[in-house]
Amino acid sequence: MKRPRNVKIVATLGPASSTYEMIRALHEAGADVFRLNMSHGDHADIRARHEIIRKVEKDCGTPIGILADLQGPKLRVGVFKNKEEELIPGKMFRLDLDEAEGDVNRVRLPHKEIFDALEPGASLLVNDGKIRLKVIDCGATFANCEIIVGGIISNRKGVNVPDVVLPLAALSDKDRKDLEFVCELGIDWLALSFVQRQADVNEARMLAKGRAAILSKIEKPAAVKAFDEILAASDGIMVARGDLGVELPVQNVPPIQKQLVRKCRAAAKPVIVATQMLESMIESPVPTRAEVSDVATAIYEGADAIMLSAESAAGSYPIEAVQTMNNVAREVESDPTYREVIESSRRADRKTVADGIVAAAREIAETTNVKAIACFSQSGKTASLVARERPRVPILALTSVEKTARQLALTWGTTCVIIGPVDRFKMAVVAAIGAARSEMGATEQDMIVVTAGVPFNTPGSTNILRVAPCAERLIFSSDPD
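The chain above was modelled as a monomer; its predicted structure follows.
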């Protein structure tokens, strides 16, 4: 199913989107990848949604990606004797390990790792940054803080520590169990929360054992600082603007988003822009103009995918939210300015034969009447390299590996087709023509660019390019292979 747009849409499933009918409707409305949020729902719920997605995939005949999003360690205060208290700016408030119920002067923070990392002057943010504390004095079991921004604090509110790298692993005990469960289930992408360093990604990859591609969520200042190393270790990136906007000044987030998207594009790794994209559509059938502009900005930047969270998981208008994203994407991508922005931000950092082949494929496609670029890709790398070029013609990714096709559902501009194994270039060209006819509506008068690697079925071996007419008889009569 060739989408009438290049950017992909990720839709989170939840209570509002758990039936076969709804999940199929979301896919038909434009969702290319479904996100399973491990913070909500037990393993039985996750298994049921996974099974429905695979049934929709089979019934629609289209590879669908499944992304499992691990919760990550959650830092929260304890409970209060009166359930909540009001903190007054200028006064002092203590966080400690004492198990006694909290009051207006103190509360338990059951995370010794935070106290080990804190230093005087560090900031602590409570309840999504609504309350801001400044550490005045601290030790191994406590932190005496000045209340900079006050407000109501209540039981088990979340705590963010933006100024320090916490000595916490990105994977909690729950995450490890969830990781094993979803990898055995057969998900395609594993989203890793609370990433602070490259080692966090390496640990997740070791545990996944090749069963899923690793996508790192950038939601902490430490991850922004170590982004180049994290990107190198990851298969993809999510710009998780929610927590990022809590731990950093909100005005910092837009330029960071642009920088991260460009770096991901240069590395030929898919990048999702996420969080609060159409937030008002949780309760309204129509988004705000600002939200539409936000979605459009991510598309103009060249993001591979844009994501819905609560809008599709728990909102009243999940289908309308997907349709809105689809409509915005189609409108933006038809704007001549879109092409100007995309092409002016293309970075030519080509070092390998494969880099040269895909660059040549794009240039040929843009200077001749070519219907599509067809690339054979066992691991997905070649298709990702073609997508990095952001060509003006569709990308047809052909693979005999089902998981590769599903993972490429997250990659910009790719239409994935699962084919049988091929061992000769002539067979590859014929298969590409067949796919171009069925998926792109190509006729005998059209041409396609075909890229592949010889010998076949060797990941990363892209070394051949051919402009092929979509008339099979011409290929059989003229192909020297």
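The chain has a mean pLDDT of 93.
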